[in-house]
Amino acid sequence: MSETAPATDPADAAERHPLRAVILAGGLTFEREVSLVSGTQVVEELTRAGLDAELRDADAELLPGLAAAPADAVFIALHGSTGEDGALRAVLDLAGVPYVGSPAAACRLAWDKPAAKSVVRAAGLTTPDWVALPHSTFRELGAGAVLDLMVARLGLPLVVKPASGGSALGVQKVSRVEDLPAAMVSCFAYGDTVLVERFVEGVELALAVIDLGDGPEALPAVEIEPESGVFDYTSRYTPGLTEYHAPARLPDDVAARAAELAVRVHEALGLADLSRTDAIVTPDGEVHFLEVNVSPGLTETSMFPMAVEAAGHELGEVLTQLLTNTAAR
C-alpha cells in the first residue's frame, strides 16, 4: 500500500470519516454456513480497523436497507451461486451500489468452470484436459456408452466435479471405472452439468491475487496437504484434516511460474480486486490451472487469509484498502 497517497490510506480515511461498509453473507446455497463464517470474520477484521461494518444477508430486505442507509462500499462474502455467478452484482450495478470484486460478466465466466478453462487455455496457460456434459446427454444417449468414451479419452484416474460451484462440494477422485457412475450421480445432486477432468498428480496450490490500486499481484502460494489425499469439502472445513504451508514449499522458479499463472488467469477472465486460483504443480514443475474463485473463503481454515499473512499484510488492512478504493471509484 502506498505511503505517498494519504487520501487512500485506510487508517487516515477511517480517522477522518469512518467508512460505512456492508458485508453480504449467507444466501440460500449449499455454502450458506461457510459464507456466514466468512462474513463474520470480515466484520470483525473491519471493526478492529476502525470501520463501521454491518453484516447483512442477501434477501428481500437487502435493497430497501441499502436504499434507506446507503453503504460507502459493499464487500461480498457470499459463496456459491448467490455471490459468485454475477447475478447479485448485476443487481447491485442496477442499484448503483459500489462493491469490492469482479464485475458481473467476469463472475459469470469464472463461475462456469468449463468456460473459464477454455479462456485460460486460449490464453496459453495449462489446464487438465476435460469433458463437460449435462445430465440430459447421459439420459438420452445412454450413460454407459458416454462414460466409456470419457474414460477412453481422458484415462484414469479422473476428477468429477460440478461444472459450477465451490467449497469442493461434489468433488470426487475416481480411480476405478466401476466407481464412475456413482460419482456422476452424486455430482449431479449439485447441478445439471458435470465436469470430468483428467487427474493430475502433484501438489495442490491456492494462489491468491489482490489489486490494491497498482494492478494485480500474486500473494505467496499456499500449499495444501490433505490427510486423506483429496481436498474435498470435509478436508477443507474440518480443522486438523489438512496441513497448509504458507508460503508453499516450492523452488523459486516454480513459485514464480505459479504467481504468473494466477495473475494471468485474473487478467484473462477480467477479474478485479481479489481472486483465488486453484492449481496443481506437477513433479516436473508444470503448473496446471484448475478453477478460480471470485469470492474466496475467509474462514479460519481458508487459504486467502493465509496468503495475506504470508505476504506480511494484515487482513483487516487489505480489506479496508479494497473497500476504500471501491468507495473512491
UniProtKB/TrEMBL annotation:
<protein>
    <recommendedName>
        <fullName>D-alanine--D-alanine ligase</fullName>
        <ecNumber>6.3.2.4</ecNumber>
    </recommendedName>
</protein>
<keyword id="KW-0961">Cell wall biogenesis/degradation</keyword>
<keyword id="KW-0464">Manganese</keyword>
<dbReference type="InterPro" id="IPR013815">
    <property type="entry name" value="ATP_grasp_subdomain_1"/>
</dbReference>
<keyword id="KW-0479">Metal-binding</keyword>
<feature type="domain" description="ATP-grasp">
    <location>
        <begin position="117"/>
        <end position="324"/>
    </location>
</feature>
<keyword id="KW-0963">Cytoplasm</keyword>
<dbReference type="GO" id="GO:0046872">
    <property type="term" value="F:metal ion binding"/>
</dbReference>
<comment type="function">
    <text>Cell wall formation.</text>
</comment>
<dbReference type="InterPro" id="IPR011095">
    <property type="entry name" value="Dala_Dala_lig_C"/>
</dbReference>
<dbReference type="Pfam" id="PF07478">
    <property type="entry name" value="Dala_Dala_lig_C"/>
</dbReference>
<dbReference type="InterPro" id="IPR011127">
    <property type="entry name" value="Dala_Dala_lig_N"/>
</dbReference>
<dbReference type="GO" id="GO:0071555">
    <property type="term" value="P:cell wall organization"/>
</dbReference>
<dbReference type="InterPro" id="IPR016185">
    <property type="entry name" value="PreATP-grasp_dom_sf"/>
</dbReference>
<feature type="binding site">
    <location>
        <position position="293"/>
    </location>
    <ligand>
        <name>Mg(2+) 2</name>
    </ligand>
</feature>
<comment type="similarity">
    <text>Belongs to the D-alanine--D-alanine ligase family.</text>
</comment>
<dbReference type="InterPro" id="IPR005905">
    <property type="entry name" value="D_ala_D_ala"/>
</dbReference>
<feature type="binding site">
    <location>
        <position position="291"/>
    </location>
    <ligand>
        <name>Mg(2+) 2</name>
    </ligand>
</feature>
<keyword id="KW-0573">Peptidoglycan synthesis</keyword>
<keyword id="KW-0460">Magnesium</keyword>
<keyword id="KW-0436">Ligase</keyword>
<dbReference type="GO" id="GO:0008716">
    <property type="term" value="F:D-alanine-D-alanine ligase activity"/>
</dbReference>
<dbReference type="GO" id="GO:0005737">
    <property type="term" value="C:cytoplasm"/>
</dbReference>
<dbReference type="GO" id="GO:0008360">
    <property type="term" value="P:regulation of cell shape"/>
</dbReference>
<dbReference type="GO" id="GO:0005524">
    <property type="term" value="F:ATP binding"/>
</dbReference>
<dbReference type="GO" id="GO:0009252">
    <property type="term" value="P:peptidoglycan biosynthetic process"/>
</dbReference>
<keyword id="KW-0547">Nucleotide-binding</keyword>
<feature type="binding site">
    <location>
        <position position="278"/>
    </location>
    <ligand>
        <name>Mg(2+) 1</name>
    </ligand>
</feature>
<keyword id="KW-0133">Cell shape</keyword>
<keyword id="KW-0067">ATP-binding</keyword>
<dbReference type="Pfam" id="PF01820">
    <property type="entry name" value="Dala_Dala_lig_N"/>
</dbReference>
<feature type="binding site">
    <location>
        <position position="291"/>
    </location>
    <ligand>
        <name>Mg(2+) 1</name>
    </ligand>
</feature>
<comment type="pathway">
    <text>Cell wall biogenesis; peptidoglycan biosynthesis.</text>
</comment>
<dbReference type="InterPro" id="IPR011761">
    <property type="entry name" value="ATP-grasp"/>
</dbReference>
